[in-house]
Amino acid sequence: MPATATKKKSKVTLQPIGDKVVVEREESEERTSGGIVLPDSAKDKPSRGTIIAVGTGKLLDDGSRGPMQVKKGDRVLFTSYAPEAIQINDGEYLLMSESDILAVIE
């Protein structure tokens, strides 16, 4: 199912292809454990989020598609250097390969 965001009078749809997924990053902590409020520049961007759209699977050598190991709604951990950030309205989404996902959080 595609990821959608509404924009004035138009609707933007992200449908990843192949083994790509669209992830919405989880919010980072606003305060340290000692209660200090962190500015945006000092926050580490978390390397976890929720999958909001998946592609059709990796194209195999025989021409068939390999099944995706993740699905829409899965909470995942991913490598922090891999994703491509995409801005849609006020939201940020990440586009990455399924192989950049390290684990599913259950």
Question: Helices, strands, pairings?
Answer:
Blueprint lengths: L2 E5 L2 E5 L5 E6 L22 E7 L20 E4 L5 E5 L2 E7 L3 E5 L1
Antiparallel strand pairs: 1-2, 3-4, 3-7, 4-5, 5-8, 6-7
Could you name the CATH topology of the domain at 19-27 and 44-105? 10 Kd Chaperonin, Protein Cpn10, Chain O
Largest sheet: 6 strands, antiparallel
User: Which regions are unreliable across 5 or more consecutive residues at pLDDT < 50?
Assistant: none
Strand order of the largest sheet: 6-7-3-4-5-8
The proportion of residues in beta strands is: 35-45%
- At CATH level 2, the architecture of the domain at 19-27 and 44-105 is Roll
| Count of β-strands | 8
Radius of gyration: 16 Å
The CATH class assignment of the domain at 19-27 and 44-105 is Mainly Beta
The succession of helices and strands, N to C, reads EEEEEEEE
Counting helices, strands and paired strands, the structural category is mainly beta
Shape: globular
